[in-house]
Here is the input.
Amino acid sequence: MRRSVPPPGAESIRVVIIGAGPAGLTAAYQLCKAHVRPLVLEADPKYVGGISRTVVYRGYRFDIGGHRFFSKSKEIEDLWTEILPDDLLVRPRTSRIYYDGKFYAYPLRALEALHNLGPVEAARCVVSYAKARLRPTPNPTNFEDWVVNHFGERLYSIFFKTYTEKVWGMDCREISADWAAQRIKGLSLTSAVLNGLRPKPKNRGEVIKTLIEEFRYPRLGPGMMWEVCTEKVRQMGGRVELGRTVTGVERKDGIWRVHHRGEDGTTRTEEADHVISTASMREIIEHLEPRPDPETLAAAHALKHRDFLVVALIVKDRRLFDDNWIYIQEARVKVGRVQNFKSWSPEMVPDPATNCYGLEYFCFEGDGLWTSSDEQLLELGKRELCDELGLARREDVLDGCVVRVKKAYPVYDDAYAQNVAKIRDAVAARYPNLYFAGRNGMHKYNNQDHAMMTALLTVENIVAGSTRYDVWDVNQDAEYHEAGGRGQERKLLERLVPARVTRP
Here is the structure.
């Protein structure tokens, strides 16, 4: 694994990192190894890890969204091993789709799916698929057309439409085809069938991303990775302060001053030569001094996020299903996905006679779901899990809690690219040594490995004192090219979020 070579006087470089998620803590860890002692400011008073934290409720641990530790980047895999050498489990990927009272393997196994659908519906699916292959929509621009081209209209409507619209809150015909091309990369009905017949590839890089069959996972949940990372940062001389909300990021006389407030209302200011922001791009721009121009502020204000909440239910474990998670393709319920935390790691559940299921609801902050009381949401979860879906028994539900997650998914609307470009240009011109990294920092929907790689390369640039890497060119597999190299000759695909289709 690459190790930064500290320049003379590295100990005197002052860096403030905003946010203690995967990107922020990776940057702090790597800076400490280069003999730079950063300060990490995290608004959450209890947890590190951002959306990759592990929430603890009465001894039960649960993941926020489900986080598989798998990367095509050996550097990231090695970093995970370095931080948690003895606590990473190898877990089988077991995920299914629930539709019309039946389970279907995910990724789809064509023969099983057709069998479960029954002879009449199976025939319709086959005819629909044949029709799509014979007369595909040329140059599909939206999600619906792209998926129909690959699976046929019937399978699309059964297995893709409902869940996608739940997650993103928009019609599939308004979602860019690029989203489907990235999320279902390399997979079609034909490849799904052939995948079941081929021997497993020895090289992980050969596996279609949708078809990965195993992954690593910290035995106490993803937050364990970042809790241990935090301790290692502190042991190496870095500081990680929780419950500190950034209230201003000021550039004056060539020095950055980061103003922050604690839960008790006390305020402090930290001076720095460099600032790495992994917090919401919108919020950081709005906190900048000198104030950005009106166009840049408008661009930041236009950036949007999709939020979600988790209803965690503790139940008597009757082992009605053993999946890591189940996608719910049922329009009659609001839940989009159900996590089975014991299946992620048995140590997430303190009592082996019980289990903890996480029901995920996708929403916008302030809408009807978000503003429902915890009692209302717990009742909704029990009704949908037990009465509607039959995945547990109501009399077996022992307890539960609700966790609301703001800014979980950056949204790519029509003006997304122009807004981010405007912000990048303004920051480059007026705010030297301010860096964006990670999902919310860059307003890019990415996995942990992608976020971590942007942090590693940002540290490389700081330590080297020059822009050796363009972190915006890190693609969805956490791969990158050196700035000034062949990167301009290659079209790198970022991990896309559904963008609304631009219509003439």
DSSP finds 18 helices and 20 strands in the chain.
